[in-house]
Amino acid sequence: MGMMASVSSMEFWCILNLRATLITLLLILFFHLSKKLYSKFFPPPSVLHLPSPSSSTSLPESQSRIPEIVSDSDLKFLIDNLDEKLDEDEKWETVIDKKTNSLSYKAKCCRPKNKPLKYLSTTVFEGCSPELLRDFYMDNDYRKQWDKTVIDHVQLQMNTTNGIEIGCTIKKFPLLTPREYVLAWRLWEGKDRTFYCFIKECEHPSAPRRKKYVRVGYFRSGWQIRKVPGRDASEIRMFHQEDAGLNVEMAKLAFAKGIWSYVCKMDNALRKYAVIRHHPTSPSVSSSTLIQKVPPELDMINGDALPAVSASIATFEPVNDEPREKSLSRKPSKKFVAKSLLVIGGLICLSRGHSGLGAKVAMAYILTKLRKRGDRSSQGMQT
Questions:
Q1: CA-CA distance, 245 to 96, in Å (whole number)?
Q2: Phi and psi, residue 285, nearest 5°
């Protein structure tokens, strides 16, 4: 009898536990279904990424006057870099040289000591006027349509006296936290339909720093646009240097692997822009409409002939081959291996759980470096 009672009791508790489990599962299922239905019929409000453009017009008169954040001395700095003036310990290294029927692109980089990488590129667009190319580059609203890295852009302030414009741009790159750019820029026009633009980082009260974005703290970029003599084509020479918080070698590799497809996409967008340009998408008052004149002492450009860019991209060989052979014959140093491991760990963290993807990118970077070292080592031994 006692055994029968215990068996009945066990059956009772088993049935009770089974019912409780079923009720719990039903409650969980109901909760998930109700959550999905709620999110479907009551979507959350959109998040505002950037400050309102109206903030630039609501500033007091004392703050609406932008000082010369971008001055003629910055234009001089740009011209010097476009003329490839480097320090004694700096050398250019060719990154890419490609072309199609409608465009050609050449780029090289330089690694200054204790500063971000410098890039110098030359792009020639066939069947394009300098004015069209200038307007295309300065139309930030149109850029949001074709440049998928640009999440948002807003004009913060415009100085109608000196033509300096300030804006905020949010960019998103794979595996990385979105970057926030608060920049000031200014345009100049020289003789023979030559245009310049220089851009640099700045601070603005309408764009406080936010934790969800990485603020780019160092940014120097600019370009020169002019007509190619004797051809229906325009050339843009660009200097670029920024510190976006990336590993230098990783940034260099990403640039080399992705820049050509980006330039081709830009060329397609330019051809479409030539058709829709009569419908302005940028603000009515901008740096493009308030372009400044190049000072006479800086307007020394010879428009009769363009410099031979291919000749200026020199090959750099060491004066003494012996030290190079010794350095190339070494195995990857412990310092390089340690840096590689740090890159792997950083990319795994940046990928937010997608460790496989982060590790693949990092390993591609490391294997590329090892392959280059191995190729150089074998060449040195053969020599």
A1: 24
A2: -115, 115
Backbone φ, ψ for residue 6 (5° rounding) = -65, -40
Give me the half-sphere count of Cα atoms (radius 13 Å) on the Cβ side of residue 59.
Answer: 19
pLDDT tens-digit profile, the chain (383 residues) = 444 444 444 454 445 455 655 666 566 666 556 655 554 444 443 333 444 443 444 344 444 556 689 999 999 999 999 998 777 778 889 999 999 999 999 999 998 888 889 999 999 999 999 999 999 999 998 999 999 999 999 999 999 889 999 999 999 988 889 999 999 999 999 998 999 999 999 999 999 999 999 999 999 999 999 999 999 999 999 999 999 887 778 888 888 888 999 999 999 999 999 998 755 555 566 777 789 899 988 886 443 334 433 333 233 233 333 333 333 334 445 444 445 444 444 443 443 444 444 444 444 454 455 455 555 544 444 43
Bridge partners (DSSP) listed for residue 185: 165, 199
Nearest to 328 by CA among 368, 367, 373: 373
Q: Scan for tokens 């940014």, then name that residue.
A: 219
Tell me the pairing of strands 118-126 and 233-243: antiparallel
pTM over cut 0.70:
no
The amino acid sitting at 162 is: N
Characterise 196 by phi-psi region: left (phi > 0), alpha (psi -120 to 50), beta (else).
Answer: beta
Amino acid at 118: K
What's at 79, amino acid-wise? I
